[in-house]
């Protein structure tokens, strides 16, 4: 399809992936297959545990089940294609496939930012206003928050993806990454990208600044409230309810900021790839472990669930 007189629109992109060394590809395939399997098992197990365990039918764990769902979706946007790239010589992705991958990446990334902020607000209400917790964080309100999260995610995704692919692409078509991220795609546009980069910065700021502000303000109030508690045991208990969420926040935002908040991100593509792997593929695997290993309620629910399943298995064998 012609674009002007001397340019042809790019219809496929070449993803360079993580490595071009054939001897590393089999090892990386095994590692990422294990990570993806653990991600699916861990997050599906967390969703099932929250659904079947009545002590976990609280706003906090409802939001955690949504986070697990987002982690499954987010990991599934990147990992299957990355696994395929280790086994085949064809590293290409169609223009449509690139658009879809970017749109889903932005949707789930935006959703995770918003959800982590909502979870911080949930902890703020639970610790600072415990008597009003179930009134404020009602089931209806939690569902509304999740719907708004997805609505905002769809809007930001549509704007950002449209912003990137409204530009003409007439070659080269090589993306030095393992997926269609916005910055490397914009670098391939054969027109001025100043406006596109300003729009990217504006909407990225629009998502991150309010969410980080909510998180910081929420935890500032939480810290003040915990310090005012007279009992050390009460302080320890209050802090333990926030520890898992703080760990998840540190992992996610730490790696995201290290990737995107750089004076010249183009000069450190290999470094960025490793960090991007961490927050797109590794963190979705770690979140269920963080929330289960540091949470007494989840540990107790796991024990009850395992006990019930073993009893059912014994009963079926007896029949």
From TrEMBL:
Predominant cellular place of this UniProt entry's protein: membrane
Cellular-component GO terms for this entry: plasma membrane
Ranges that cross the membrane: 27-49, 61-87, 93-121, 141-159, 198-226, 238-262, 274-293
PROSITE patterns, A to Z: G_PROTEIN_RECEP_F1_1, G_PROTEIN_RECEP_F1_2
GO molecular function, one term: olfactory receptor activity
G-protein coupled receptors family 1 profile domain segment(s): 42-291
Keywords: Cell membrane, G-protein coupled receptor, Membrane, Olfaction, Receptor, Sensory transduction, Transducer, Transmembrane, Transmembrane helix
Domain of life: Eukaryota
Membrane topology designation: Multi-pass membrane protein
Protein's cellular compartments: Cell membrane; Membrane
Alphabetical list of InterPro entries matching this protein: GPCR_Rhodpsn, GPCR_Rhodpsn_7TM, Olfact_rcpt
Sequence similarity: Belongs to the G-protein coupled receptor 1 family.
This protein's name: Olfactory receptor
Phylogenetic placement of the source organism: Eukaryota, Metazoa, Chordata, Craniata, Vertebrata
């Amino acid at each position: 399809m012609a674009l002007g007189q001397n340019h042809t629109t790019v219809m496929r992109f070449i993803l360079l992936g993580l490595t071009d060394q054939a001897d590393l590809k089999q090892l990386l395939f095994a590692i990422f297959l294990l990570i993806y399997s653990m991600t699916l098992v861990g997050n599906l197990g967390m969703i099932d545990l929250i659904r079947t365990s009545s002590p976990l039918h609280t706003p906090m764990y409802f939001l955690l089940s949504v986070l697990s769902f987002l982690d499954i979706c987010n990991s599934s946007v990147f990992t299957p294609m990355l696994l395929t790239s280790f086994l085949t010589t064809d590293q290409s992705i169609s223009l449509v496939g690139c658009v879809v991958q970017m749109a889903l990446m932005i949707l789930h990334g935006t959703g995770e930012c918003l959800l982590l902020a909502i979870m911080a607000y949930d902890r703020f209400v639970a610790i600072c206003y415990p008597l009003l917790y179930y009134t404020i964080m009602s089931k209806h309100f939690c569902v509304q928050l999740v719907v708004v999260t997805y609505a905002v995610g769809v809007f930001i995704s549509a704007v950002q993806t449209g912003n990137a692919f409204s530009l003409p692409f007439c070659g080269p078509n090589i993306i030095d990454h393992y997926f269609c991220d916005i910055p490397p795609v914009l670098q391939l546009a054969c027109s001025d990208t100043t406006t596109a980069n300003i729009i990217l910065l504006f909407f990225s700021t629009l998502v991150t600044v309010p969410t980080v502000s909510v998180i910081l303000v929420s935890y500032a109030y939480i810290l003040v409230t915990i310090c005012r508690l007279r009992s050390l045991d009460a302080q320890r208990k209050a802090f333990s309810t926030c520890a898992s969420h703080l760990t998840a926040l540190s992992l996610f935002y730490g790696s995201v900021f290290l990737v995107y908040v750089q004076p010249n991100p183009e000069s450190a593509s290999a470094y960025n790839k490793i960090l991007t792997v961490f927050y797109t593929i590794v963190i979705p695997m770690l979140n269920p472990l963080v929330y289960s290993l540091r949470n007494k309620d989840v540990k107790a629910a796991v024990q009850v669930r395992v006990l019930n399943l073993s009893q059912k298995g014994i009963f079926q064998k007896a029949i």
